[in-house]
Amino acid sequence: MERAGGRRRVVVTGIGCVTPLGPDAAASWGAALAGHSAVGPIQRFDPRDLAVRIAAEAPDPLLPGDLPPKQVRRLDRAVRFAVAATEEALRDAELAPGRLDGERCGVVIGSGIGGIETLLANHRALLEGGPRRVSPFLIPMAIANMASGYLSIRYGLRGPNLCPASACASGAHALGEALRVLERGEADVVLAGGTEAAIQPLVVAGFAAMRALSTRNAAPARASRPFDADRDGFVLGEGAGVLVLEAEEHARRRGARVRARLLGYAASADAADLASPAEDGSGARRAMQGALRDAGCGPEAVGYLNAHATGTPAGDRIEAAAIRAVFGAHADQLPVSSTKSMTGHLLGAAGAVEAVWCVLALETGWLPPTVNLDRPDPECALDHVAHKARLQAVRVAVSNSFGFGGTNASLVLGREEE
Q1: Cα–Cα distance, 399 to 417 (Å, whole number)
Q2: Which of the residues 116, 262, 299, 369 could staple to 327 if both were Cys, CB 3.0 to 4.6 A apart?
Q3: What does each C-alpha distance from 142 to 78, 111, 119, 165, 174 come to in angstroms?
Q4: Count of CB atoms within 10 A of residue 170's CB?
Q5: Phi, psi (deg, nearest 5) at residue 173
Q6: Does this model's pTM top 0.85?
Q7: Distance between CA 170 and CA 196 in Å, rounded?
Q8: What is the pLDDT of residues 287-343, one digit of tens each?
Q9: CA-based nearest residue to 102, from 151, 164, 162, 163
Q10: Per-residue pLDDT tens over the stretch 325-337
């Protein structure tokens, strides 16, 4: 069960997520296929002084009953999202923590911003009450790698413990680097994904100052509109996605259900701008081409593409051109959707949640839609899955994730063959 070059094959045996569409994968997937938008007025704080007052807020995570309340209070919201998604993924994989060989299990959970809620709360405490009001748990609660670190501690996993912090590509990079860990034989099981909980006044104000966010405060459900000619920016979201990745021989040996295969991964850099993608789309193009080479499949084999498309005027246009450059004439028959139209942009968690969507699309044949695509931009002309989910059997799917700093990641997932 090896790939070319002696690398081990890697499969997905469990999925879990918390998204603005629901507290778990089943609820989120059902809402996505129904074309529901999770965008609404911000509820977690009073946004009246902000230029942007909408977001895609996720429900509070469903945490396991064995977590003492005192311990929960010491976990940032981003970590709590990751715990809930991981518990679901492990149940789905039928991997009880006691069955895990800690020496052969790793964790790779990415986050673009980390524990920003904890950081800002303690900054307020410092200003209002002085240094004595700062929590001794500030640093371990706020640092970006604490989701990965806490999961390692909770389950006794002593293999590689990593946290890609690569902006909006963090979740996809986490899955790709977990793939490499498994291929090299450094672990047999890796919990991989991304988490983010950044709906905070400072973060919203910062993105708004960049003019990166949609300002459709009066029509929140219609605000996130990737590829649409009237798009005006993305909508901030939150949540987590975690996948159980296993070396295929390990999964077969324990009789696991294989949900999909992680076939390929590539990362690239634009080396162009701090926030804007390279105008020629070269970074996105090289990421997709590299992932396809890594997977050993040609562009014509791909049956679905979950685009990074966030709803920004430049980003969507550049990604669409890169897709055409990679897939050529096949782009006219390649279904493309951006689920960010429903979930908003989950930043460091986006790539992991969208990989979960790809697994479910491969399994079910249902392709989630891009909602609000009322007037497709001619410069983004593709085979858009617009408004309604499409039933179409797919054997190979690609998921794109691109981030500030010009960082790019593409993943190739394949259907488990009977």
Answers
A1: 20
A2: 299
A3: 9, 11, 6, 13, 19
A4: 32
A5: -60, -35
A6: yes
A7: 10
A8: 999 999 999 999 999 999 999 999 999 999 999 999 999 999 999 999 999 999 999
A9: 151
A10: 999 999 999 999 9
